[in-house]
Amino acid sequence: MRYLSQRYAMPYKECKGLLTDIGTEELAHLEIVATIVHQLTRNLTPEQVVDSGFGPYYIDHTTGIWPQSAGGVPFSATEFQSKGDPITDLVEDMAAEQKARSTYDNILRVVTDPEVCDPIRYLREREIVHFQRFGEALRITQDNLDSRNFYAFNPSFDIRNQC
To answer: What pLDDT is recorded for position 159?
Structure first.
């Protein structure tokens, strides 16, 4: 949702298209992760739920999919991080992709099931590609600094705010 929300403030068509494409792909990533979680939890016995540490989640959601962090913090609109400034948003996007890659790295350190590891490796590879593509979009944006880009030198703003 972050990338799909940011595209409205992006002044450059190729970067707006990139945000749309990656945002759409990320929705598919959510589906992949949700499927993995569903497959791992759908047949748990009550004892397995408790022993696995899945109890608090199970009490609230049974085995329904409720997006949240590994620490139990539920997904919210604060994850969108849409500032409306192309440079700010793209740098945030690059950081988000690196954080996702790190999360997948951590999953791969603790999980051995190939049916989980294989799709997680795929998702990790895609995060690396997204990071690179956002870097390209950042270069395009920086090469086209003008009045449509709030990061550009803006004389009227800078004059009003001089010390």
So the answer is: 55
- How far, in Å, CA of 10 to CA of 21, rounded? 14
* DSSP-derived 3-state class of residue 68: strand
| Beta pairing partners, 74 | 68
Compute the chain's Rg from CA coordinates.
20
Note the pLDDT tens digit of each residue in 112-163.
999 999 999 999 999 999 999 999 999 999 888 766 555 555 555 555 555 5
Instruction: Say which DSSP state 131 is in.
Output: H
The owner of tokens 């690196």 is 98
Query: What tokens were used for 7?
Result: 């595209």
Structure tokens at 39: 């497959």
Q: What's the predicted TM-score (pTM) here? A: 0.84
